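Handout, page 2. Input:
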Amino acid sequence: MSKNIFWINVGFILTFFLSCQPNQKDLVVFAAASLTDVLNEAKTEYELKYSEKIRYHFGGSQALAVELSKGSPGDVFISAGNPPMDYLLSKASAKVEGITNITSNSLVLVTKDQNLELVDHSSLIGLDTLAIADPSLAPAGVYAEYFLVNTGLWPLLEDKLILSGDVRAALNYVKSGNVDAAIVYLTDGLAEPDLQIKDIIPPDSSPTISYPAAVVSDGINILKARRFVDFLRSSEVNQLFYSYGFR
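Output:
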């Protein structure tokens, strides 16, 4: 092979490799798994409006906060609940600014079996298996744990609990028939019309479920990040959140 052909091939491979890499100008948003559907719709509107690209990284909020604290590149963090945001603030290596609540949610029980009798939260004792998000990884699990502890159900159900990586995974356990029921956010239950929503969880049995958003101030797209957070607080997007069951 001649030197010219060799360097042409090297140049082609390098060009192809670089074209496959994420554009550093893309806005990278770390967001709670329970926001997947609504943020994907908001993404379409935002990209059309501002001609900018967004890349989402969805997951359990606590796990995402840990990733960001260890230096994973991101521009915006949206958490389900305050503890993951507080964790990020406590880490000297992580810098966030402009924390603001963008929406809120509530807990419900979902089942696949239409014949499952669940008249109130005490009926959960009769279940064989109950899925919740792992409290060490996702706020949905923390809220579920609050509910179970405050109602005295935790010691009665602890051996029946199936822990998942995030709230969407708990929902999928029900969809697949691997568990009798799951404690999830109302918005997740509404996203699955084939599942039964049981609104039997007292609203005062756990803290308010808020969604704080913040700009990662050492990210490479800080101005775009601020604009995206402002966009999420707009009346237009508030209506979108409302249509998905957020409040």
